[in-house]
Write a structure and sequence with these properties.
The protein is built from 13 helices and 20 strands. A hairpin with a 2-residue loop joins strand 16 and strand 17. The chain has three domains: 194 residues, Isopropylmalate Dehydrogenase, CATH 3.40.718; 132 residues, 3-Layer(aba) Sandwich (Isopropylmalate Dehydrogenase), CATH 3.40.718; 102 residues, Alpha-Beta Plaits, CATH 3.30.70. By secondary structure, it is α/β, with parallel strands linked by helices. The strands form four sheets. The protein has a ten-stranded mixed β-sheet, with helices on both faces. It binds nicotinamide-adenine-dinucleotide. Nicotinamide-adenine-dinucleotide (NAD) binds next to loops. Nicotinamide-adenine-dinucleotide binds next to loops.
């Protein structure tokens, strides 16, 4: 018996949750349900997180959370419960299978069967943003080795366990050589541990285009957070199954399972909604808690029901569908099909226990880290980069000198182009002269001198090498 936390959510949430639970219990799911309240009512009662402290205790105790969609009230101040849950519980992997159900559900891609594995905790979603000048705001993109290792290993373990043939990695490491470069490098390292699974890397732009055009070329795709956010929606949409897709959010301790759609308030309380998305989430949950044969039974009964043409309004199509049913009738049809498999659609077979083997991250021995320079960011408005160079070169010392200025990453001094558009946000790179080194005191010295000269420094970034390997990017054009 596994105790799970259930939240019935808002809008169509309660109806589709009741249908989902009825189906999996009828299939023999060995679960005990502890219900909590999250969402609109909790928000409107003045809790801006949409969840009470006691409910967190329940979720953390049970570790497995099946959540129906919730309504985030309009207006400022309400925090997204999904984002908070993912971050607080360290749910690093978002897994979204996108499969087409041709010819029973409309799709342009009849043979699509792709699983998107999206990193869920870091990247540009750290939410660390700063306005530094009148004209420029930055957002920090953080990519960590543990973050990359956990998500890439998850993708390969998932592929191995579910008999998938290939894992593809999407990044933009031709541009972001350090951050996306690390993701790609870790992918190559971990891929070697799975010689039986094919692996490949695509630059995200052409990879995304290929996925949208020829999704049958892909199997499991793993990617950093932002790309995964966008492409998991694209993948679900082109599979024709936004209303039919579920997702899992997996952490080292806890996991949350849900439908990918929202609370569809206009359809609430009418016995109309399609419970399939949440049911797909629940099937992933059953696999996660080791009740894989129950998961298999539910999935095959569900496929059979879709194939039988018993459809809710959202996928009902004259000529294809046989019967238009409500939420409850759909659930009853799935229950009646338990023990049966589809004939045309591909049935599933899950291993006895589909718990993945995911070792905890082992911290590596630290590299030899050496300070080799500093980028001084300056807010400055003037005629030309050459003029700024003159101003900033006043900071040069015997040991440390200005070596380069960039504007939004593009080298503008020395030897810039007049045509390059410049904002008021400049990066001035200082490096030690031949035979010298640079220390943190030298950096403080530069900053103090800048104050005396009325140079508006807005931040510094230290330049390091790690075991001799450059840990920073060059200026574009350098
Ligand atoms: P939505 O997904 O609720 O609805 C989009 C469209 O799809 C609507 O036409 C709706 O009727 C239809 N639809 C969605 N699910 C369906 C189902 N199971 N069966 C039949 N039709 C279905 O998106 P929205 O309208 O943009 O958002 C409504 C609310 O849901 C908002 O408050 C939003 O914040 C919230 N939301 C919650 C989650 C979540 O809890 N995970 C996710 C997305 C949106």
């Amino acid at each position: 018996m596994t105790k799970i936390t259930v939240a019935k959510g808002d809008g169509i949430g309660p109806e589709i949750m009741d249908a989902t639970l009825e189906i999996i219990l009828a299939a023999g799911a060995n679960i005990e349900i502890e219900e909590i309240e999250v969402g609109e009512k909790v928000y409107l009662a003045g809790n801006t997180a949409g969840i009470a402290k006691e409910s967190w205790d329940v979720i953390r105790r049970n570790k497995v959370f099946l959540k129906a969609p919730i309504t985030t009230p309009q207006g400022g101040g309400y925090k997204s419960l999904n984002v908070t849950t993912r971050k607080f519980l360290g749910l690093y992997a978002n897994v979204r299978p996108c499969v087409s159900l041709h010819p029973f559900v409309d799709t342009k891609h009849p043979v699509m069967d792709v699983v998107i594995v999206r990193e869920n905790e870091e990247d540009l979603y750290a939410g660390i943003e700063h306005q530094q000048t009148d004209e420029v705001i930055q957002c920090l993109k953080l990519i960590s080795r543990p973050g990359c290792e956990k998500i890439v290993r998850y993708a390969f373990e998932y592929a191995k366990h579910y008999g998938r043939k290939k894992v593809t990695c999407f990044t933009k490491d031709n541009i972001m050589k350090q951050t996306d470069g690390l993701f790609h490098q870790v992918f190559d390292e971990i891929a070697k541990e799975y010689p039986e699974i094919e692996n490949e890397h695509w630059i995200i732009d052409i990879g995304a285009a290929k996925m949208a055009d020829t999704p049958e070329a892909f199997d499991v795709i793993v990617m950093p957070n932002l790309y995964g956010d966008v492409l998991s929606d694209v993948a679900a949409q082109i599979a024709g199954s936004v209303g039919l897709a579920g997702s899992a959010n997996i952490g080292e301790e806890c996991a949350m399972f849900e439908a990918i759609h929202g609370s569809a308030p206009r359809r609430a309380g009418q016995n109309m909604a399609n419970p399939s998305g949440l049911l797909q989430g629940a099937i992933m949950m059953l696999n996660h808690i080791g009740q894989s044969k129950i998961a298999e039974k539910v999935q095959n009964a569900w496929l059979k029901t879709i194939e039988d043409g018993i459809h809710t309004y959202d996928i009902y199509k004259e000529g294809v569908s046989k019967e238009k049913v409500g939420t409850k009738e759909f659930a009853q049809a799935v229950i009646a099909n338990l023990g049966q498999s589809p004939k045309l659609l591909k049935s599933v077979t899950f291993a006895e226990n589909s718990k993945l083997n995911l070792p905890k991250y082992q911290r590596k021995a630290p590299a030899k880290k050496e300070l080799v320079g500093v980028d001084l960011f300056v807010n400055w408005v003037g005629k030309s980069p050459d003029e700024l160079a003159q101003v900033v070169q006043a900071l040069d010392t015997e040991k440390v000198k200005l070596s380069m200025i960039t504007n939004r990453g593009i080298k503008v001094w020395p030897e810039g182009f007049e045509e390059t558009f410049c904002t008021d946000h400049w990066r001035c790179r200082f490096k030690p002269v031949e035979g010298e080194s640079i220390s943190k005191s030298d950096i403080v010295g530069l900053l103090n001198h800048a104050i005396e000269l009325d140079i508006d420094t807005i931040k510094t970034e230290n330049l390091y090498t790690f075991d001799g390997k450059m840990g920073f990017s060059l200026g574009q054009g350098q």
